[in-house]
Amino acid sequence: MLTQERKAYLLDVLQREKRVVAKTVSRKLGLSEDTIRRDLRELAAEGLLQRVHGGALPASPAMGDFTQRTQVAPDSKAAIGRRAALMVRSGQVVFLDGGTTAVQVARHLPADLRATVVTHSPSVAVELAKHPCVAVEIIGGRLFKHSVVAMGASATTAITGIRADMFFLGVTGVHPEAGLTTGDAEEAALKRLLISQAAETIVLASQEKLGAASPFLVAPIQAADTLVVESDVPDAVVEPYRRLGLTIVTA
């Protein structure tokens, strides 16, 4: 089997089964695991999958920069943002992550809501400047231009001084085994800190992120309390998360 034929086969398996197990494929094709692992490395370098121990998972299509991500599933993100916004109660202190779906949460907060939103996202803060009753606390620091969020030592220091009722978390990958993942190590660490400072973590999980993985672990899936997903996500997709104890909220 030629290299391109092997790679096409691997991508087909990934599409059908949502994972590739190198040992299984090598036995089926009568090839060495080293050959399969080399093919997976090359496909990962092309951004076509995410390598994990023993094989590969789908790469998240949400790995582009902020501008590119605005073009990915905008209707789904609006629906998720609208539903998530209804979860906030008056008097609460809420961490709102950066990202395109988080902007939709800010956009859809009820006009009569009186709460405090803490965010390290200038985009979210600007959106909330229009809200008549929500107080906004902006976390400052070095601007990470890829995601348009503040990061660094000053952001970390500010976050450790706040205890929030809930954290609306944005990630690029949500997987029952690979966990909550994103594309930058420092950003993953900041999200992990936000999780630790919130009583409840709610993941904004548009469909392209479910079952996908990115290079850097934010936290195991059990660190989340709730997934907000689209109403048309099949039960078979969300059932593994439900079995792990997460609450599934449909938009």
UniProtKB/TrEMBL annotation:
The keyword Cell division does not apply. One of its GO terms (molecular function) is DNA binding. InterPro entries: Carb_Metab_HTH_regulators, DeoR-like_C, DeoR_HTH, NagB/RpiA_transferase-like, Tscrpt_reg_HTH_DeoR_CS, WH-like_DNA-bd_sf, WH_DNA-bd_sf. Residues 3-58 form the HTH deoR-type domain. It comes from the Bacteria. Transmembrane segments: none annotated. SMART domains: DeoRC, HTH_DEOR. Keywords: DNA-binding, Repressor, Transcription, Transcription regulation. PANTHER family: GLYCEROL-3-PHOSPHATE REGULON REPRESSOR (PTHR30363:SF4), HTH-TYPE TRANSCRIPTIONAL REGULATOR SRLR-RELATED (PTHR30363). This is DeoR/GlpR family DNA-binding transcription regulator. It comes from Lichenifustis flavocetrariae.
